[in-house]
Write a structure and sequence with these properties.
The chain is mostly helical and 257 residues long. It has one domain. Helices cover 84% and strands 0% of the residues. The radius of gyration is 19 Å and the shape is elongated. The chain starts with a helix and ends with a helix. The N terminus is likely disordered.
Length: 257
């Protein structure tokens, strides 16, 4: 009987994951966040600023590819908050509560779908960079490791955005705050320009920005094949974020739903 219940829960979560993926694919705004945004930013930043910053596009790609990758993952992670908020305020969760499924199933389906959304965003970013001429100096194995590490961190951020989506009064507010958060975290980091070119106050802000650690770790792995201290910081930070926000998000969700 217990095994049957576990099978049903797994089947329900899988169904909700599929439902959330379809919602992303059928919503132009969500497709823009996951697929088109990283492609557009990679092309725009690469061809507009590559010559001014690094001399040419090819020389700029090792700098910008890890930056656009992280930007795309933050944007994709923020989508969980707006989707959850939209479902809460449109009455979808009230309908789901009436179904014979576990109460946590819709939230679990959303967070599981986020992993696939993050993977799609990562592939869109790296594929665009590859087509522009970027080649990882450390080889394909390190690319896989960077993708896994960055997706793990992006998924940990999904729990924060999910919590905000549960608490927010509307999906529009969630989308606005998510966009501002994404822009601040990426533009006030080492994602697009060398830190040495920044004014001293900006250097201080960049040094305290956690995204800078992610990007620096990714660059070292992609270009030199080195698992640095920054990579350990990223991994430990992701674990800590999940340890804090996963129980808090589940608690808030179960009491509000």
């Amino acid at each position: 009987m217990m095994n049957l219940q576990k099978t049903n829960i797994f089947s329900n979560i899988t169904t909700m994951t599929y439902r959330n993926l379809l919602k992303t694919l059928h919503n132009p705004d969500k497709i823009l966040d996951v697929i088109f945004q990283p492609i557009i930013f990679m092309l725009m930043f690469g061809y507009l600023f590559g010559g001014a910053i690094a001399g040419n596009v090819h020389a700029y790609l090792p700098t910008i590819v890890p930056g656009i990758l992280m930007q795309a993952l933050i944007s994709a992670a923020s989508g969980s908050g707006s989707q959850i908020s939209d479902d809460f305020h449109s009455g979808i969760y009230d309908r789901l509560k009436s179904l014979p499924i576990a109460n946590i199933t819709p939230l679990a389906g959303q967070l599981l779908a986020d992993i696939l959304r993050l993977f799609i965003a990562a592939i869109a970013s790296l594929t665009t960079g590859f087509l522009m001429g970027w080649r990882p100096g450390a080889g394909f194995g390190w690319v896989v490791l960077v993708v896994l590490l960055d997706i793990f961190l992006g998924w940990s951020l999904s729990w924060i955005f999910a919590l905000y989506g549960i608490l927010a009064k509307g999906s529009t507010m969630v989308e606005s705050v998510s966009l501002i958060t994404m822009l601040l975290l990426t533009f006030l980091s080492s994602a697009f320009v060398p830190v040495s070119t920044l004014p001293h106050p900006m250097k201080i802000l960049v040094s305290f920005n956690p995204v800078s650690y992610v990007i620096q770790a990714s660059r070292l792995m992609l270009n030199q094949g080195v698992w640095s201290s920054q990579a350990w910081v990223v991994l430990i930070s992701g674990i800590l974020v999940i340890s804090v926000f996963a129980p808090l998000t589940v608690f808030t969700y179960t009491h509000k739903s």
